[in-house]
């Protein structure tokens, strides 16, 4: 047996013995026995532990859980801070819920990195990162959203989800709920019956969603009650029913949604039929702002969305206020920008500047609502054609993804150190994306 494996097994057994004996805990919380030398180790699955859950239970802060190719039928709960859970092969390390469990991976501790694996066939979420005990237990979510009742808002602080494929999950592919200071990057989400990537209930979020592909979902990306240093940049949201939404919702806490930056994304052809039905019947819309305020939409390419490129409306009693639509390129949409307020709740101070666009509803918005605009200026309302959404398919029948890019040197790189606060993008540095953004690894082609 190689010496390295002997050392890993010895360290793991020492840790397990310490836990069983009730060794004293340190700064990382109770029940976390320390190795005598404080060393960080790699725990391999199945060589050192038969299941991923077993390996995670052995891991201590700073350790790497490295998973060999295989299909693992388990729900993995990560409650130890600062460990890295990584697959050796993104496409061949598969956590498969067989539609028998709510979540594939649940992260409830800070500083955890989840990397280079596939999570599929869960009734709720592929990867859930949360500070909510109710959400971590899988209690909410059955009606398509997370209402945690009178549970106080508790944030999980710092996380990383990178090079993860989340497909065919019954609610969300990758879900950060009641979490702050994190990054979701280089990942792929498809077949979610709600949204491929979701960020909910954070303020300030200090979360970056970047360089991801979300396709063949009901909604590509959704941010609910998520704002304050919330960045969605350089993603491909194409071939869903709805590309992206940012909204306020009474079902979650921290109303209203505000202050997100949506920049440099390709949001295209979001009228894909072979997808799960969108809960609100949305179809053919690139960007939807529903009761969100103070958001900046910068240099996005919004093209080929059959109903509308960007829509602003109100959520019940919550008006959208002060959203800025600046330097975006709109092309081939049913209407490029449409504002609609069918109830007494109206928007205020929403404005446009420097966009390439052909049509708005009401007409001439680029002139009548040009930025800057007084915060109290009423937003007019318009109408346009909104076709009935066609029937969808079960999330379990969505087309499987193709091979996705691997985390570099996954099997030989040590554990990832997740920063307490991620580096946040400079919006001015985010360019307008090409039509070909991330196309090499997408199934849905855009015009």
Describe the structure.
With 447 residues, the chain is mainly beta. The chain has a single domain, classed as Pectate Lyase C-like (3 Solenoid). It has a 20-stranded parallel beta sheet that branches. An 11-stranded parallel beta sheet has the order 4-7-9-11-14-17-20-23-26-29-31. The radius of gyration is 22 Å and the shape is globular. The N and C termini lie far apart (55 Å). The N terminus is likely disordered. It holds the Pfam family Beta_helix. It comes from Streptomyces rubradiris (Streptomyces achromogenes subsp. rubradiris). Keywords: Repeat, Signal.
Comma- or semicolon-separated keywords:
single chain, 447 residues, mainly beta, Pectate Lyase C-like, 20-stranded parallel beta sheet, eleven-stranded parallel beta sheet, globular, disordered N terminus, signal, PbH1, Beta_helix, Pectin_lyase_fold/virulence
Quick summary:
With 447 residues, this protein is mostly beta strands. The chain has helices at 3-21, 52-58, 133-136, 365-368, and strands at residues 42-45, 64-67, 70-72, 76-78, 84-87, 93-96, 103-107, 112-120, 125-130, 156-167, 172-177, 179-185, 188-190, 195-202, 207-210, 213-215, 219-226, 230-233, 236-238, 242-247, 260-263, 266-268, 285-290, 296-298, 301-303, 308-313, 324-326, 329-331, 337-339, 351-353, 360-361. The chain is built from 4 helices and 31 strands.
């Amino acid at each position: 047996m190689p010496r390295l494996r002997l050392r890993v097994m010895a360290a793991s057994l020492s840790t397990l013995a310490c836990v069983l004996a009730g060794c004293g805990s340190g700064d990382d919380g109770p029940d976390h026995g320390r190795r005598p030398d404080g060393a960080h180790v790699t725990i391999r699955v199945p060589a050192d532990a038969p299941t991923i859950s077993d390996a995670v239970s052995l891991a201590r802060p700073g350790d790497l859980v490295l998973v060999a190719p295989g299909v693992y039928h388990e729900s993995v709960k990560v409650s130890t801070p600062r460990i890295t859970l990584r697959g050796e092969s993104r496409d061949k390390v598969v956590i498969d819920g067989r539609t028998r469990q709510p979540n594939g991976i649940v992260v409830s501790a800070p500083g955890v990195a989840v990397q280079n694996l596939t999570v599929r066939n869960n009734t709720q979420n592929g990867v859930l990162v949360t500070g909510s005990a109710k959400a971590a237990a899988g209690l909410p979510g059955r009606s398509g959203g997370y209402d945690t009742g009178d549970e106080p808002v508790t944030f999980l602080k710092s996380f990383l989800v990178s090079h993860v494929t989340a497909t065919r999950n019954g609610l969300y592919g990758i879900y950060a709920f009641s979490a702050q200071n994190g990054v979701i990057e280089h990942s792929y989400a498809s077949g979610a019956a709600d949204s491929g990537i979701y960020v909910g209930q954070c303020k300030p979020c200090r979360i970056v969603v970047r360089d991801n592909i979300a396709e063949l979902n009901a909604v590509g990306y959704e941010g609910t009650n998520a704002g304050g240093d919330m960045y969605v940049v350089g993603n491909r949201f194409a071939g869903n029913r709805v590309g992206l939404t940012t909204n306020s919702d009474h079902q979650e806490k921290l109303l209203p949604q505000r202050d997100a930056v949506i920049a440099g994304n390709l949001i295209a052809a979001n009228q894909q039929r072979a997808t799960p039905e969108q809960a609100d019947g949305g179809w053919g819309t690139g960007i939807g702002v529903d009761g969100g305020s103070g958001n900046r939409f910068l240099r996005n390419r919004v093209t080929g969305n059959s109903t509308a490129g960007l829509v602003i409306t109100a959520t019940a009693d919550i008006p959208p206020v002060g959203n800025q639509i600046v330097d975006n390129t709109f092309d081939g949409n049913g209407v490029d920008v449409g504002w609609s307020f069918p109830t007494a709740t109206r928007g205020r101070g929403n404005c446009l500047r420097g966009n390439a666009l052909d049509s708005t509803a009401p007409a001439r918005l680029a002139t009548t609502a040009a930025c800057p605009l007084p915060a109290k200026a009423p937003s007019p309302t318009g109408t346009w054609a909104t076709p009935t959404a066609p029937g969808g398919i079960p999330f379990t029948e969505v087309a499987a993804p193709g091979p996705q890019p691997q985390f570099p040197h996954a099997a030989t790189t040590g554990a990832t150190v997740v920063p307490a606060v991620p580096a946040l993008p400079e919006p001015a540095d985010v360019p307008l994306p090409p039509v070909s953004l991330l196309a090499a690894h997408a199934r849905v082609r855009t015009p």
